[in-house]
Write a structure and sequence with these properties.
Blueprint lengths: L1 E2 L1 H20 L4 H25 L2 E6 L3 E3 L3 E10 L9 E6 L3 E14 L2 E12 L3 E13 L5 E16 L3 H5 L1 H10 L13 E7 L11 H7 L3 E6 L5 E7 L7 E2 L2 E2 H18 L3 E7 L3 E9 H13 L10 H11 L4 E6 L9 H11 L3 E7 L2 H7 L6 H26 L3 E5 L4 H14 L4
Parallel strand pairs: 3-9, 12-15, 12-17, 17-18, 18-19
Antiparallel strand pairs: 1-9, 2-4, 4-7, 5-8, 6-7, 8-9, 10-11, 13-14, 15-16
């Protein structure tokens, strides 16, 4: 409980009147005393009435888990024990700093036989993975006579587990992209692809004559063609750098979370295409290694492993991390490396170790491009600070381009994507790799 702005204004006015009257009319002090007693009695009466009529029952609802980058609705239901609810109630949550509280939405406030009931919803923006708690709820509403602000604290004791975002998997978007590979088909626009025999079909107009199987056509006395499909059972290793640079915020979320979301989507897509999927993470030293399993079987295990991946503050040791990975792999694999760099100097060791891996494996290097750099390159203003930022942004983009070109010359497929387009771009590159038999 605390005095409202109305009570503070009344006290200030009464104090001014008391000072003025005491200076000019000293014989009316009893009137001033009565005025202060009346104000105190009015305040006490307002407190008693508000306490008796302001009791309410609350219920809380919070989903047990949510996806990073999404919002979770924290719902508060209020029912009065007697009379009706206050007209205006302010709500504030005491929760973990990783849960960013949005604006309050009142879902309903309808009258029934017992009085008024109200339900409000607060959007919690999930910015990081982990287990986070909503500890307390603070309510504030004005008293009956508007002289006091009643403040109540309620224990909530709810928790939410923030998991990596697998909404593209649940929505079927990944399945739609991977459908041609799942059906065993190849992209007919690219000739000579597919090294694994799929089936024989009767020749029809429009088919490539070079696909005709002349020996079987002679036996069957009709033209038949050989249908080929991309080879399955390749080994795909999702390699995530969890060092300091990947813990930086980019477009509201960390680069590490963006990489994990894309890696899980890739795992699901590779499972639909019939490949084996493994997982590896490293920072200053090797961390987790999950051997390659069939994609659909590997997905729940990788989801659990990625949910527990920590945000590290140490610099990444690419030499130790990639050398350890090279020693764990016994067959040619498609390795998708999610990492980042600052400039060409810090990227030298990374390039050298990726070059060693590229001799025996097919490498896809994935980096996240900051969309703000493009805005800084061409500033709207021509101030000195804007020009300095533009020069720095151009230098950063130039060095990133130089590193990507150097990796491309080593036979590495580079993907420098924006955070929003990362998942779809990665799946598109995977489909291209499978269709062209690049593994």
């Amino acid at each position: 409980m605390r005095p409202s702005s109305y009570l503070i204004a009344l006290v200030l006015i009464s104090a001014a009147v008391t000072v003025f009257v005491s200076v000019w009319w000293r014989d009316v002090s009893y009137v001033l005393l009565l005025m202060w007693l009346a104000l105190a009695a009015l305040t006490v009466a307002d407190l008693v009435i508000s306490r008796l009529s302001g009791r309410m029952t609350l219920e809380f609802d919070l989903p047990p888990q949510g996806f990073v980058g999404h919002t979770a609705a924290f719902t508060v239901g209020m029912w009065p024990q007697k009379n009706a609810l206050p007209d205006k109630i302010d709500i504030r949550l005491d929760c973990s700093p990783e849960l960013v509280v949005g604006e309050i939405r009142w879902l309903n406030q309808a009258s029934d036989a017992e009085g008024k009931q109200a339900k409000s919803s607060l959007d919690l923006h999930l910015t990081r993975r982990g287990q986070f708690a909503v500890n307390e709820l603070w309510l504030k509403w004005p008293s009956r006579l508007k002289l006091l602000d009643i403040i109540a604290r309620m224990q909530v004791g709810k928790e939410i587990a923030v998991q990596p975002d697998i909404s593209p998997v649940l929505s079927g978007a990944i399945r739609t992209q991977i459908l041609p590979l799942e059906a065993g088909q190849k992209d007919l626009r690219l000739r000579g692809e597919g090294s694994e025999f799929h089936q024989l079909r009767e020749f029809a107009s429009g088919m490539d004559p070079r696909s005709i199987d002349w020996k079987r056509s002679a036996r069957m006395r009709s033209l038949v063609v050989r249908e080929m499909r991309a080879e399955r059972n390749h080994q795909v290793i999702l390699c995530i750098d969890s060092g300091r640079l990947m813990a930086e915020q980019l477009a509201g979320f960390t680069k590490l979370d963006r990489a994990i979301n894309a890696a899980l989507a890739m795992c699901w897509g590779a499972g639909l295409a019939g490949d084996l999927v493994g997982f590896y993470s490293f920072d200053s030293r090797p961390r987790l290694f999950v051997p390659a399993l069939p994609g659909r079987s590997a997905f729940p295990r990788l989801q659990t492993v990625c949910a527990g991946l920590r945000y590290e503050t140490q610099e990444t040791n690419h030499t130790l991390g990639l050398t350890h990975l090279s020693g764990r792999l016994k067959r040619r694999s498609l390795i998708v490396i999610f990492s980042d760099f600052v400039d060409t100097i810090t990227a030298e060791l990374m390039i050298e170790n990726i070059q060693v891996l590229a001799r025996h494996h097919f490498i896809v290097y994935v980096a996240l491009r900051d969309p703000m750099l493009a805005k800084f390159v061409e500033p709207e203003e021509t101030t000195l600070d804007a020009v300095a930022r533009s020069v720095a942004a151009r230098q950063i983009l130039h060095e990133r381009r130089a590193v990507m070109e150097k990796l491309a010359r080593l036979g590495v497929l580079c993907l420098d994507s924006t955070p929003e387009a990362l998942t779809s771009d990665l799946i598109a590159r995977y489909i291209e790799i499978k269709s062209r038999e690049m593994i």
